[in-house]
Amino acid sequence: MGEAIGQILSYGVGVALSPFPIIGVILMLATPRGRINGPALLLGWVLGLALVGTIVLLVSGGADPSDQGQPADWVSALDLAIGVLLLWVAVKEWRDRPRGDEEVALPKWMKTVDSFSPAKAGALGLALSAVNPKNLLLTIAAATAIARSGASAGAQAVALAVFVVIGALGTGTPVVLYFALKERSKHILDGLKSWMEKNNSAIMAVLCLILAAKLIGQAVSDLSS
Hints:
By secondary structure, the protein is mostly helical. Helices cover 77% and strands 2% of the residues. It has a two-stranded antiparallel sheet with strand order 1-2. The longest helix has 40 residues, at 185-224. It starts with a helix and ends with a helix.
């Protein structure tokens, strides 16, 4: 189990440092329904990570993810494909980053969070974690790493739970601050939101580049051994 958890730590951090969900939950917490919608988005986020991870583990469990202690070729090929896709995301984010005083382009849904119901907030959280390309790729990579560790089903479930908890830290921190500090959290959350808006593309580009290098290097090493 220790090996499985060690494999997924970097992926969990990559998911946790997702600027748009963090910005989104901060915006929701500032609305009249913030006490309900903020936690609802967080719950949807957690469910999305858990759902994708569970599906990948179930599929991998019946497809021999390892062969005599070494990753099966299809696992290494999947790692390589995910790495290449993350590299593409990194390049795209870097090229699209705002220059100078250029205004940051934010998703249209962020302008309508005042009208969100708890169900819609939860659905948004699920979509941001399970459908967003970067988070989807990282969750698949994490679940595949867990599956090929050779751990028991119970140990794999624990490793996936650890990944989900780590992946929820970024989106969950504003919610915890909101309820713990109440009015005093406003200044902190506004500052975090502004910083995330300004540095969104750079954060995404660096994260995806580092994780892409890890996956591609690992896949090349496995396929050549």
